[in-house]
Structure formats: structure tokens, C-alpha cells
Amino acid sequence: MGEYMPPYTISNRMLELVSSISEKVGRITSHKDLEAKPHLRRNNRIRSIHSSLKIEDNSLSLDEVRDVINGHMVIGDKTEIQEVKNAFAAYDEIGKINPGSIDDLKRIHGIMTYLTVKESGDFRKGEEGVFSGDKCIFVAPPPNMVPELMEQLLNWVKDYEGKVHPLIMAAVFHYEFVFIHPFADGNGRMARLWHTVILYRWRKIFEAVPLESQIEKYQQEYYDAIAKCHINGNSDFFIEFMLEIIDGIMDEVINQISKSGANTSEYVKRMLTVMEYDVPYTATSVMEQLGLKSRDTLRKNYINPAIELGLVKMTIPDKPNSKNQRYVKI
């Protein structure tokens, strides 16, 4: 058996996008730009989880996902709540995952699908197809071929790390993984997480880049790109699509950092520091932690500027002076 190589061809457009993304990554001068802003990193992680699950028809809102992750009571479907807990635990493993390891792949799938899927952490035993309504648009390879196909794909990731640009490798892996459809359930979630894992190995900032939120925004185009590659027999169209997606989300992250950096007063920075946890705070509790006596000073110098910058939101925005008002970091 010859050396396995997924079918794709590098185009000029791909090279332009790789260059653009690399330049934008460089503008975020180091991981410290995001390390210094834990509220941004955590918020982006929650957005990633919410979007990846929403693509798979999980109905929980962003606020409900945030509440589940923060250990608050959420009234909803038990399976959907468990999916959020599982995804949070799986994303927490990003820094420990070897993207070329079958053992790691199965282990993380076991975390991602804990208590929600019968074949959790194991390759599928049955036939699988992808449907659009009642129409089958794609039939996955038979289950007996899955172990060998996944071994080939993961060996390619392992052997070509450092030889194929991670931005290209992550997109090729993502498409080939979806094509093989190795698990009975959770393939989309795993493909998107592994995409981030491969990029994280290149630049650690990708741990805090909500790639999934951009995919969700262009969800139909995402499925269309995959379908087009099925027809063409290579991942070229999907590579370009994913590079466009990443190029766009990098602009958003750069904007986030600048908004919460240069334009943020020392007052707001201090308040974000004392609002250490992603939970609702009363005005009184924030004042106490800041050592303030005046509620007017709190509103004028701290709360209102933070709300204008999109760094803090009110829990009851239509009643700003409500006695039940709370403030949450975004």
C-alpha cells in the first residue's frame, strides 16, 4: 500500500488567504494579548460551544449555555444540557490533544458524547448517510472501512505536521473526517474541535478564536462546500471556504482586543478585574470590591463605559434602574 495523501490542490486564492490570516495572527503580537483578557477568552469559548452545538440543532440559547457552564440551573432538555457540559469538558482538553492520535480522538469523542450516545468513544458499527430533509445527499464509507481510513488520515496529520501549513491541514482534515463519518453521532462537533486543535498547535491564540461562531453564521454555505467537495472528489472548495471563514473571524478577534484594550479606561479595566467570574453582579457588590462610595461614580466611570464598549451587559436592559438589575461580563 502506497503512502496516503488526501486529494487537494493549492490555489493562488488559498495562498492569499493563508498570507492574510498569518498577517492578522501576527498583529495579535502574542498569546499574551488574549491571556491578559480572560473574560474575552472565556466568552469566546462559550460562543464556540454554543455555535457548534447549535449547528447540530441544540436549542439552548447563548445565555443558557453560559449558565450551564457556570453551574446555574437551566430549564431545558436534559440531553441538550448534557451536550453543553460535554462540549465544555472536551474543549478544555485542547492543549493536551495530539491531533494525530486515534486514542486521543476516541477519548475526546467519549467526553463529547458522554451519556448522550450509545457508541460513545467508539467508531460506528452501522451504515451512515447525510440527509437534507428526506433526501440522502451522501452515503458514508461502510463501517468496516472506518478504522483503516481514520488510521490513514491521522497518520497523514502526524507525518505531515510541519510540512503542510496548519491552515491547509486543518481544513483538509475537517473535510476528510466529515467524509469518513467515523462515529455514529458527534462527527460535526469533533471535526470542528479537531480543526481548532490543529490550529492551536500552530498558534495558541486559536484556543480563544470562536471559529464555530463564524461557521454557524454561514451554516448553509458550510454544508454546500462539503457537498461540492463530495461531487468533485477533493477538498479544494472546502479549504477555500474555511480559510475565508478564519480570515473573517480573525478581524473580529482583532476588533475585540482593540475594543477591550486601547479604548478601555483604567476604571473599566479595574472593574473587569474585580468581576472575576462570569456571573451576574449587583451594583453594590461591584462597588464594595472597587472600594467606591458613590453609585453615580460607578455608573459614570465604570458601568456605562463598559456597556458602551460591549464588555458588560445588563440582565434587565429594558429597565436599567431596576432594583433586580445585575451586570455580566460578555
What's the count of strands? Answer: 4
CATH architectural group of the largest domain = Orthogonal Bundle
By CATH, the superfamily of the largest domain comes out as Fido-like domain
Q: How many domains make up the 3D coordinates?
A: 2
What is the helical fraction, as a range of percent? 55-70%
Overall geometric form: globular
Strand content: under 5%
Structural class: mainly alpha
- Number of helices in the DSSP assignment: 15
Q: CATH first level of the largest domain: which class?
A: Mainly Alpha
Which topology of the largest domain does CATH recognise?
Fic-like fold
Keywords: ATP-binding, Nucleotide-binding
GO molecular function: ATP binding
InterPro entries: FHA_dom, Fic-like_C, Fido, Fido-like_dom_sf, Fido_containing
Organism: Anaerovibrio lipolyticus
Summarize the model shown.
By secondary structure, this protein is mainly α. It contains 15 helices and four strands.
Write up this protein:
This protein is mainly α. The chain has 2 domains: 36-259, Fic-like fold (Orthogonal Bundle); 266-329, Arc Repressor Mutant, subunit A. The protein is 58% helix and 5% strand. The chain is built from 15 helices and 4 strands. It has helices at 12-27, 32-35, 38-55, 62-69, 78-91, 102-112, 146-160, 166-180, 187-202, 211-217, 219-232, 236-259, 266-274, 283-290, 295-308; strands at residues 129-132, 135-139, 312-314, 327-329. The strands form 2 sheets. It has a two-stranded antiparallel sheet. Helix 1 runs parallel beside helix 12 (236-259), helix 3 (38-55) crosses helix 10 (211-217) and helix 7 runs antiparallel to helix 8 (166-180). The relative contact order is 0.13. The mean pLDDT is 92. Residues 23-79 form the FHA domain. This is Fic family protein. The record marks 56 as: Important for autoinhibition of adenylyltransferase activity. Residues 100-244 form the Fido domain. InterPro entries: FHA_dom (IPR000253), Fic-like_C (IPR049514), Fido (IPR003812), Fido-like_dom_sf (IPR036597), Fido_containing (IPR040198).
